[in-house]
Amino acid sequence: MKLLEYEAKMVFKKHGIPTPKGYVVTSAKEAKEKADQIGLPVVVKAQLPVGGRGKAGGIVFADSSLQVFEVANELLGKKVQDLVISKLLIEEKIVILKEIYLGVTVDRKSKQYVILASSEGGVEIEEVAKETPEKIVRHQVDPLLGLKSYHSNLVAKRLGFSGTKMSQFSSLLLKLYKLAIDMDAELTEINPLAEVEDGFIAADARLNVDNNALFRHKELEKKIIESYQGELTQREIEARKKGLTYVELDGDIGVIGNGAGLTMATLDTVMLHKGKAANFLDLGGGASADRIKKAVEFVLNDDRTKTVLVNVLGGITRGDDVAKGIVRAHDKLKTKKPIVVRLMGTNEKEGQRILREAGIMTLDTMEEAANQAVLLTGGE
Ligand code: GDP
Ligand code: MN
After folding, report:
1. Residue 99: CB within 6 Å of ligand 1?
2. How does pLDDT run across 92-138, given as a tens digit for each residue?
3. In the β-sheet with 88-92, what is the strand arrangement from edge to edge?
4. Deepest of 26, 89, 235, 265, by most Cβ within 10 A of its Cβ?
């Protein structure tokens, strides 16, 4: 989950990383008031979960409160990369001696955190990485050892810092690394880290938290629910509450499979037979009859769904459990919507018998089942 700049900066502050004085606002009037309070000049910054706002016109300097008002008016409601700006961060404009890049991210190859730093920070950092990769300092963190001050000192020295600046940078890096660990960050980045007269200030802040660790971050709960609202459809939110792995699509065949790979293959096969799936629903491994009932019910209850296609390869998941779950959902809803099942693996004979007795169609291969589901759905 990506935090907005101002949210990331709140976390930074908590971890003792200096940030410019600033306020988040949602109206031009408020923007002007806060600018007066901070003192001019200020920077008006669009709060969007994307990088490159500077280049896209989302970062504007303002010298007067009238200008702040005008700029805020223009930015609020404007679209950048399909996202609407609804919040602005009004910040004191700091005098930057040098723009540094500093990031902590996960190196998937070594499965370790890696520190990336460059004395050539700023909006062109991608170019620096491409054209002059030697200007990027890299330090891989041994997870058992952690990041020690002799490591962070070394990074600071490699960036060219010495004396007080070296210790200031080094201590900031230790704080950022601790923040990454505490927050289960996939990425945390300061670009630019502003070198100022008496130290460093995080002029920008990025923090992406690993979605699989969100349960450990109750402090982000409000944000998590909000992010669902933006990214997930109403049905997807409902599914998530029921613990189902579900993605809404725009067709009329409800697809249920076990395992993401098999479910994806089922979607492809439906498409190959000129059908359109209404959803992707992965039962996961070892699904119980209850879970299967819940999933089938959920898909059947979708008004857009005309037919349901279930494709299960039983391993730990037992065929008879699958069949019982489907029959229970079918009986409960008394639906006329056809259900087509392809069921193989553990206890397949027993499962197929249960389905046949309940009048539910079973076929032997994914191709046949997908084809049948498309035929039963009928074309327009
Ligand atoms: P991004 O483009 O989305 O990464 O947004 P940033 O917050 O990094 O801002 C883009 C650029 O604006 C930075 O690289 C700086 O050059 C400049 N900038 C941002 N805040 C300040 C500030 O307080 N003072 C000065 N002088 N420049 C700033
Ligand atoms: Mn930036």
Report:
1. yes
2. 999 999 999 999 999 999 999 999 999 999 999 999 999 999 999 99
3. 22-25, 88-92, 42-46, 59-62
4. 89
